[in-house]
Design a protein that fits this description.
With 393 residues, the chain is of the alpha/beta class. The chain folds into two domains: 131 residues, Alpha-Beta Complex (Aspartate Aminotransferase, domain 1); 255 residues, Type I PLP-dependent aspartate aminotransferase-like (Major domain) (Aspartate Aminotransferase, domain 2), CATH 3.40.640. The longest helix is centred in the C-terminal third of the chain and has 20 residues.
């Protein structure tokens, strides 16, 4: 991997040490150009007219995202975020009072809130599988629970936002297929960071965003919808004229493909930017991206462990490019702001982002670093040295 070329493609590298790629990564030039070009066209000829003029490029965007996750264009829907994608998927499942959702203790906070909303409004039971001793969901426990009880859906976050844990979504997918249970995977933090194959995972839905490790613009996301989910006639509760055709006073016809999960108001400039980010990542190679990110994250954990009062919070059999720490006697939010003043981007997360995980670890907040393949070891040293000075002060 040509790191200098990557950094040349990412001009903002010259301004800041950006270690907040799990929040919003720095976009490479081809992505920035794709967004600007469509915005300029909308400005010049009008929004509807620009969409018509770029129909071929928009159609190709579906192909680019489909290739990224190992599927076909008909199985991809564009949304404004991973959370919107996840909600569209979950509301398409016909839950009834007393149905149960099986999830984990490490699912993303917005997903956990949606589960609780379903529990409160619909009387759906939310059941959380326990963690394994080494961290992450206990797959054997999931198997036992699926054997013992009937679940309407299983929902798992591949990588939680609050730690470097990678959960075994493929093994859970095999269990769901064996028992014909609908399976929803949140891949918000993994798409763009590592190879993703929806067939290997065995999911019915997979939600993702543009802005994180994929390095696309904010305001775009996508949803993978399996052929099985389409054939079952699943469609979101909040469907509009993009997803269905009104055919009679009390009848409508669903779109035949995953577009039934879309809404009419789509921001095509950021969608086209997301597609360009997918092409950029595939040109680099997702396996090579994953290898470099994991190398940088492992190096960063080793360096941080040497600092006084620092506790690395990441646990699990497989760790990724998210590095979370607690610093004794220091508020992570204050550290984040102080680092930002020094040109170093990180982020701080508090207990409401991960109630179950933080309570189990005995912390109420964390400071999160998340390197990407364009970062360098020298940048890691700069960040760690700055944190060392802040702790000493």
């Amino acid at each position: 991997m040509d790191i200098e070329k990557l950094r040349a493609d990412t001009p903002s590298c010259a301004e800041r040490v950006h270690l907040n790629n799990a929040g919003a990564a720095l976009m490479p030039e081809p992505v920035i150009r794709a967004v600007h070009e469509h915005f300029a066209l909308e400005t010049r000829i009008g929004g509807y007219e620009a969409e018509d003029a770029r129909r071929a490029e928009i159609d190709a965007a579906y192909d680019a995202i489909a290739t990224l996750v190992g599927t076909r264009a008909r199985n991809i829907a564009f949304t404004e975020s991973a959370t919107a994608s996840f909600a569209q998927a979950l509301t398409s499942i016909p839950f009834e009072h007393g149905d149960a959702i099986l999830t984990t203790r490490n699912d993303y906070v917005s997903n956990q809130l949606l589960f609780l909303s379903f529990e409160r409004r619909l009387g759906v039971r939310v059941v959380r599988a326990p963690d394994a001793t080494g961290g992450g969901v206990d797959v054997d426990a999931v198997e036992a629970m699926l054997r013992r009880e009937t679940f309407k859906a299983v929902c798992v976050t591949h990588i939680p936002t609050n730690s470097g844990l990678v959960q075994d979504v493929a093994s859970i997918g095999r269990l769901c297929r064996e028992r014909d249970v609908l399976y929803v995977v949140d891949a918000c933090q993994s798409v763009g960071q590592m190879p993703i194959d929806v067939d290997a995972i065995g999911c019915d839905f997979l939600s993702a965003t543009s802005r994180k490790f994929l390095r696309g613009p904010r305001g775009a996301g996508f949803l993978y919808v399996s052929d099985r989910a389409l054939e079952l006639g699943l469609a979101p509760l909040a469907i509009d004229m993009r997803g269905a055709e009104w055919t009679a006073e009390k009848r409508y016809r669903l779109a035949a493909d995953a577009k039934r999960f879309e809404t009419f108001e789509t921001a095509w400039p950021v969608v086209l930017g997301m597609a360009e980010a997918a092409r950029y990542a595939q040109a680099l190679g997702l396996a090579a991206i994953e290898q470099r990110i994991k190398h940088l994250a492992a190096r960063l954990r080793d360096m941080l462990r040497e600092l006084p009062g620092v506790r690395v919070l990441d646990r699990g059999p497989e760790l990724c490019g998210i590095v979370s720490i607690a610093v004794a006697g220091h508020d992570p939010r204050a550290l984040m702001r102080a680092l930002r003043e020094r040109g170093i981007n990180t982020t701080a997360q508090t207990r409401p982002s991960a109630v179950l995980d933080y309570d189990a670890k005995g912390v109420d907040a964390s400071l999160r670093f998340s390197p990407h393949c364009y970062n360098t070891e020298a940048e890691l040293e700069t960040a760690v040295d700055a944190l060392r000075q802040l702790i000493a002060a």
